[in-house]
Amino acid sequence: MAVSQWNLDKSHSNITFSVRHMMIANVRGSFGEFDASVTADPADPTTASATITIDVASIDTKDEGRDGHLKSPDFFNVEQHPNMVFKVTKVTSKGGEEYEIAGDLTILGNTKPITLSGEISGPAKDPWGNEKIAVSASGSLSRSEFGLTWNAALETGGVLVSDTVKLNIELQFAKAA
């Protein structure tokens, strides 16, 4: 196969996260609007170059008040920083469909390297003859490293929102015509 362009299949893709709340429970959320551009040879995923752009205002934690707070200057400050961007810098095979996906993540104008563990599957043809590949990746980051430092101390000790955010990315792509 050869290096080719792949377009995001949004109906089969999602970006979710979870963060510890009050030191006892996990709050889960997602981003409803995002796009990704990928150039890759599916026979050799280590050749991939990719950029994922997330519309931060599309955050959804199933609580309108919390979502509003997350969009405010206390957290993501969407008016000043409407997008998060993950640019893949290196894909390393770990054997089979297992890969390490390294890249630069930009949040609030702060760019830091992160590494995700992932699976890259395909190519496969769907029932309509479209060639597809899929990427599943997960990992965690320290939100304070990106300037997301708002918090509140708890009477019992600890903090309201943990520093560690767990990410889960599921993306499917169709080969460009």
Name its key features.
eight-stranded antiparallel β-barrel; 11 strands; mainly beta; 177 residues; 1 helix
Q: Would you write up a description of this structure?
A:
This protein is mostly beta strands and 177 residues long. The protein has a single domain, classed as Lipid/polyisoprenoid-binding, YceI-like (Lipocalin), CATH 2.40.128. It has an 8-stranded antiparallel barrel with strand order 1-4-5-7-8-9-10-11. The radius of gyration is 17 Å and the shape is globular. The mean pLDDT is 86. The protein contains 1 helix and 11 strands, in the order E-E-E-E-E-E-H-E-E-E-E-E. Helices cover 5% and strands 61% of the residues.
In short:
This protein has a single domain, classed as Lipid/polyisoprenoid-binding, YceI-like (Lipocalin), CATH 2.40.128.110. With 177 residues, the chain is mainly beta.
Write the layout of secondary structure elements.
Layout: E1 4-8, E2 14-21, E3 25-31, E4 34-41, E5 44-55, E6 59-60, H1 64-71, E7 83-95, E8 98-107, E9 110-125, E10 131-142, E11 161-175
Antiparallel strand pairs: 1-4, 1-11, 2-3, 2-11, 3-6, 4-5, 5-7, 7-8, 8-9, 9-10, 10-11
Low-confidence stretches: none
Mean pLDDT over the full residue set: 86
Total domains, how many? Answer: 1
Order of helices and strands: EEEEEEHEEEEE
Query: What can be said about the biggest beta sheet?
Result: 8 strands, antiparallel, barrel
In percent, how much strand structure appears in the residues?
A: over 45%
Which architecture name does CATH use?
Beta Barrel
Radius of gyration: 17 Å
Shape field: globular
Number of helices: 1
State the secondary-structure class. Answer: mainly beta
**If you consult CATH, what is the topology?**
Lipocalin
Q: Strands across the major sheet, in which order?
A: 1-4-5-7-8-9-10-11
Give the helix proportion (percent range).
Answer: under 10%
Number of strands: 11
The CATH class turns out to be: Mainly Beta
The CATH homologous superfamily is termed Lipid/polyisoprenoid-binding, YceI-like
**What distance lies between the first and last C-alpha atoms, to the nearest angstrom?**
15 Å
